[in-house]
Sequence to fold (244 residues):
Amino acid sequence: MRQVALVTGASRGIGRATAARLARSGYAVCVNYYERQDKAEELTAQLRAEGCAALAVRADVAVRAEVDAMVRTTEDAFGPVTLLVNNAGVAGQALFQDVTDAMWERYFAVNLNGMRHTIQAVLPHMLHEKRGCIVNISSIWGQHGASCEVTYSCTKHAIIGLTRSLAMELAPSGIRVNCVAPGVIDTDMVQVLGQETLRALAEQTALGRLGTPEDIAAAVAFLASDEAGFITGQVLTADGGFLP
Ligand code: NAP
Fold:
């Protein structure tokens, strides 16, 4: 059966590196994006020029109908999804007393509900085949407390709960569910912190540098591989030895 990966939020950052890595290792890849069609199509054009199978598909993962349409488009192009990488996410900082309903709801809608939408859309085929793999992207802030990031941290803790519980539920059906918890990774998401803070965060990292999107793509690729065939319900922390 053809290996087909759907990577959410793959136009930039960690998702982009993950989609590229999977495509170059033989997966047909759906590169999901939300706003940056230009970045998504630049990536798929580059991958196709290298002989890979890749398709850019827009969907707001927070909207079930858009996710369902994206999965149908992917299936029509490549066949059923065998690997789902739930990477799309939003982040930001605010004192807890300043968190608005809109912020709270949007973060949960994208970071958590988005995963429910994608998983429920790809599961019927995985259950039918009794095989499949799901990798969710949490964060070290899903493992530790994060001042001024309570909302984000709550969504990332919830992703770990989702991963562990769903892994137990789906294991009898031959479907593995795991999670990667990245440390501080040098992407657009962290640029708002400013260079001085990023330098301090690199110093707080035992390996002395920020992570790269490719560092996380490698962790996802491992969990997706047959080498990880006996691993499910786990959180793989890829943080360079970050000291919270
Ligand atoms: P990023 O550079 O900000 O990229 C975010 C990606 O998510 C973009 O491709 C964006 O699409 C997409 N996206 C945002 N909202 C979406 C929506 N509603 N529907 C579909 N796609 C959406 O972020 P990143 O740093 O690569 O982070 C990727 C994941 O890793 C996130 O879940 C994040 O929480 C997690 N993470 C990041 C770090 C870090 O230090 N960077 C650490 C731990 C965990 P557009 O380009 O179209 O806007």
Residues 4-183+216-237 form a domain with the Rossmann fold fold (CATH 3.40.50.720). The pocket of NAP is lined by residues 8-15, 32-36, 39, 60-62, 87-91, 110, 137, 139, 182, 184-185, 187-190 (CB under 6 Å). The chain has one domain: 4-183+216-237.
